[in-house]
Write a structure and sequence with these properties.
Blueprint lengths: L3 H16 L3 H12 L2 H23 L3 H6 L1 H24 L13 H16 L2 H10 L11 H36 L1 H24 L3
Helix pairs in contact: 1-8, 2-3, 2-8, 3-6, 3-7, 3-8, 5-9
């Protein structure tokens, strides 16, 4: 089992990391602004679910492959970059579509949001390497079953990110109606979103181990 001291330290570090500005929480806030609280929650769930894959990979040493194999790292990296740039293209293509605030998403829409968030997370090899470096710092080898300790920490991190990201999305949703109802702002929102996705895709494509 994970020592309580390590667990508290990990919890604090996880909260700080979740609140740190980054592509994931910015994307959740965008969903809160342009869609609904439910959309923000489902997106948070999708992004956070990817943590399960990265944690399992780190726990059983699979992430080490990305750290040691340039080819494996590059394959996943470029897949992730391509996906982000494709999302940028889709957002730019529909840049003139009218935004509607507070729309009720169908089950299909929510599934698509979850899937998009999940894919965004797992197709970033740098996240795998991060977990490989981050989780072991809070593991005590003398307590045995190191993979299980890392998985427990990963679950804690996932719960923290769901709570923090959803909270940020809900807060952003409070301002969504004013933002979307302003033609001068809503007109450029999809273009800005496209620019964000393209920048993230380019950044990922140019990143190194």
């Amino acid at each position: 089992m994970v020592e309580l001291t390590n667990l508290y330290l990990f919890l604090g570090a996880s909260i700080l990391l979740a609140f740190s500005p980054g592509p994931d929480n910015i994307y959740v806030m965008t969903q809160g602004i342009t869609r609904s609280k439910k959309a923000a929650f489902v997106t948070s769930l999708g992004l956070s679910s990817g943590v399960i894959i990265h944690t399992t990979a780190a726990a059983f040493g699979i992430s080490a492959i990305f750290h040691t194999s340039e080819m494996a790292f590059n394959v996943v990296k470029f897949l992730g970059a391509f996906y982000l740039i494709y999302m940028a293209y889709k957002a730019f293509k529909h840049r003139n579509d009218k935004l509607t605030f507070g729309q009720k998403e169908s089950a299909k829409d929510l599934k698509a949001l979850y899937t998009k968030g999940f894919i965004m997370n797992i197709l970033n090899p740098k996240v795998s390497i991060f977990f490989l470096a981050f989780l072991p710092q809070f593991v005590n080898v003398s307590n045995g079953n190191v993979p299980m300790q890392m998985i427990i920490l990963g679950v804690v991190f996932m719960i923290v990110t769901i709570v923090v990201f959803t909270s940020m999305g809900v807060i952003a949703n409070k301002f969504g109606e004013k933002i979307v109802s302003n033609p001068s702002i809503s007109k450029y929102l999809n273009t800005i979103t496209a620019g964000v996705f393209f920048s993230l895709g380019l950044k990922l494509a140019l990143s190194e181990r």
